[in-house]
Every structure is written in C-alpha cells, then in structure tokens.
Specification:
Layout (H helix, E strand, L loop, with lengths): L1 E3 L2 E7 L1 H10 L12 E5 L6 H21 L18 E6 L2 E3 L11
Antiparallel strand pairs: 1-5, 2-3, 2-4
Length: 108
C-alpha cells in the first residue's frame, strides 16, 4: 500500500442532473444511487467551498461530456457555478493505493 499525495472530490448525480441526462438518453442507467466520479485534487486544502469552486467548471464539463459524448447539438443545462445543485459532493484528503501496479494517466 502507498499513500498518494492527493486529496479527492467525489461527485454523485442529484435529480436535476439525472433528469437532464435521461432527457438526452432515456436508456441511461443513472439514478441517485449511481456510482460517483472521483477527482484527485491537492492533498492539503482548508476550505471545502473554495476547493469545490476552484474545480467546478472542469468537473461540470467532464460530467456533462460523459453523458453526451461530444455531441455538440445537445443543450447543456444552465450551470450557475454551484455543483451542489446537480451533485452530492464528498471531499477527503487521504488517498491510498492498494495495488502494486503503477498508476497510469491518460489525457481527457
């Protein structure tokens, strides 16, 4: 096991995001119990609201792109900059890698 020098921000969809996503693709298997996405952030942070605000636009774009997969004809829901409207959010500062294999990275 190895401690990784990152914190995390996990987002899980709330009903407004779910409703938008199902309007795009009614076959999606998405609900409030859906698996969340983990975003690695700096390990040390003191203000949850500031760290969420710092990454809100990037997370918003990634979560929306995962639904419409680059189809530019789809209208995104209006985003006020407040992720809490669309996602349940959890933050933490401990990330432990249980595997021996090296971590790989891929640009999105």
């Amino acid at each position: 096991m190895k401690l990784i020098n990152r914190g995390f921000l996990m987002v899980k969809p709330k009903q407004p995001f779910i409703d938008w996503a199902l309007g795009i693709d009614p076959e999606l298997m998405i609900d409030e119990n859906s698996e969340g996405s983990i975003y690695l952030i700096e390990e040390a942070f003191w203000d949850d609201d500031l760290i969420i605000e710092k990454y809100a636009k990037k997370i918003w774009n990634q979560e929306c792109q995962s639904i419409f997969e680059g189809n530019l004809e789809i209208e995104l829901p209006e985003f006020s900059g407040n992720l809490n409207e669309f996602f349940m959010i959890e933050l933490g500062c401990t990330v432990i890698d249980l595997l021996k294999d090296p971590i790989s990275r891929e640009d999105l």
